[in-house]
Design brief:
The complex is a heterodimer of chains A (379) and B (72). By secondary structure, chain A is α/β, with parallel strands linked by helices. Chain A contains 15 helices and ten strands. Chain A has two domains: 104 residues; 247 residues, no CATH class. Chain A is elongated. The chains are: A alpha/beta (379), B mainly alpha (72). At the A-B interface, α1, α2 and α3 of A face α1 and α2 of B.
Chain lengths: 379, 72
């Protein structure tokens, strides 16, 4: 999937083309300086200074000609992307907003045909205005999750819609670590950030109300900057996890994502990601790609099982408890690297409810215990 | 001699403009929400351009300094 605003790219292409021309002009102006008779005389008279100056400037100016050619190549690359976007099927966005089974199926067909999907930012914002997240601490259950991949996802499956759980890890090495559980959407219309409309924003933006509200919940929970985080997400939760992992303000060392379309998200250096995909689940394909490097299991999709294959139970949890899953090389490598999170005990968890709050720009404090999270446009 | 000073200053001014010309594409592409491998490649190339321009600007600036030294 391609997500970009063609107008912004066109503007960038114009600037790049102008930049290439400017660099060539500067190279010519520099040559004119070096060829000036006064410089030639000075070079003969003072080889240690003026002579060295000429010897130093000549290759730099030659390099500028090469640089101008690279500007041109980059301009062509950006223009190629603009052309692809202009030829794209913009209808996909409307289909997703309609959020019907037929719409999702048609969008899947478009994506599997490898057609770029143009998402016009202005159109997206008009159809799906960004929510102002409202974060409120809620009562947490007494015990923590079982410290295993299956245990964490099983716990995630018990989270009510809109809620996120932050679990401190009690490690012997004294390093502050937390596991954060991020659930996916509830397809029924609801006032939380786990809605279908919000999931489109989570997927198409690097930062949206959901991921920003999770960040706010981390701050409210007193998670210190620099603490090591393992984010565990299902569906929209996995996408939000990748958004947070790309945010340099947080130190996300591990992401566990099940049933999440995240091939359009960048994996930052220093973050290990384990993607788990049920072949029968259509949601991971919404980014138009079966993840390479993912743990993929199960039979091919069947129309009658499409929705249940996406649910944690029965779509994922049983598989995560099998010997086959535990023995898979990808899973073993991840588990070994995530040992500080998976082998340790957990402290008292804290839960926060993330509501959509108001739609539109102004961020306001809502309620006595609710903390509004600003809509900064994300991007 | 004054002519050489003018030429050295001209070279120094060119160096500053080369540096600025290299910064603009990286800044512009970083500001665009362009999520795909092609976008990643373009941003990386713009960063290379910025570094190359900065290196060339550094050499030209140093050359300008040497020309001024020849005057003194």
């Amino acid at each position: 999937m391609i997500t970009a605003d063609p107008r912004a790219l066109r503007l960038a292409a114009r600037e790049l083309a102008a930049g290439g021309g400017e660099v060539l002009g500067l190279a010519a102006a520099g040559q004119a300086v070096l060829l000036h008779p006064a410089v030639g005389f000075a070079a003969l008279r003072s080889p240690a200074s003026a002579g060295r100056a000429v010897a130093m400037a000549e290759p730099a100016l030659a390099g500028l000609v090469v640089l101008a050619a690279r500007f041109e190549a980059l301009t062509a690359e950006v223009l190629a992307q603009v052309a692809a976007l202009e030829a794209a099927e913009v209808v996909a966005l409307a289909l997703r907003v309609a959020d019907t089974g037929a719409g999702v199926a048609l969008e899947l067909a478009l994506r599997s045909a490898d057609l770029p999907i143009a998402v016009e930012r202005a159109q997206l914002d008009e159809l799906l205005p960004q929510a102002t997240g409202v974060v409120t601490e809620v009562r947490s259950p007494a015990g923590g999750p079982d410290p295993s991949i299956h245990g964490l996802f099983a716990r995630l499956g018990t989270l009510p819609r809109g809620e996120v759980e932050i679990v401190p890890v009690l490690g012997a090495d004294g390093v502050p670590r937390y596991v954060v559980l991020l659930r996916g959407i509830d397809p029924a219309p609801n006032p939380t950030l786990n809605s279908a409309a919000q999931a489109v924003q989570t997927s198409d933006r690097r930062s949206d109300a959901y991921s920003r509200s999770v960040a706010a919940a981390l701050r409210l929970a007193g998670v210190p900057p620099g603490a090591e985080l393992m984010l565990v997400g299902h569906s929209q939760g996995g996408i939000a996890a990748m958004n947070l992992a790309a945010d340099p303000r947080w130190h996300v060392t591990h992401v566990l994502a099940a049933g999440s379309p995240i091939s359009n998200k960048r994996v930052p250096p220093g973050t290990r990601v384990l993607r788990v995909e049920n072949r029968g689940d259509p949601v991971p394909l919404l980014d138009g790609d079966r993840e390479s490097g993912a743990y993929v299991f199960g039979p091919p999709p069947r129309l009658s099982h499409l929705l249940s294959s996406h649910d944690l139970r029965p779509g994922y949890l049983d598989e995560l408890d099998t010997a086959r899953f535990a023995a898979d090389p990808l899973v073993r490598a991840f588990t070994s690297s995530a040992a500080p999170y998976l082998g340790a005990g957990y402290g008292a968890p804290r839960r926060f409810r993330l509501d959509a709050g108001k739609f539109g720009p102004p961020a306001v404090l809502v309620g006595l215990s609710g903390h509004a999270v600003g809509n900064d446009g994300g991007g | 001699m004054s002519e050489l000073i003018v030429l050295a200053r001209r070279l120094d001014e060119l160096a500053a403009r080369v540096r600025e010309a290299g910064v603009r594409p990286a800044r512009r592409l970083a500001s665009i929400d362009w999520q795909c491998p092609r976008g990643d490649r373009a941003r990386a190339e713009a960063e290379h351009l910025r570094r190359s321009a900065a290196a060339a600007a550094g050499s030209l600036g140093e050359a300008a300094g040497l020309l001024l030294r020849a005057v003194r």
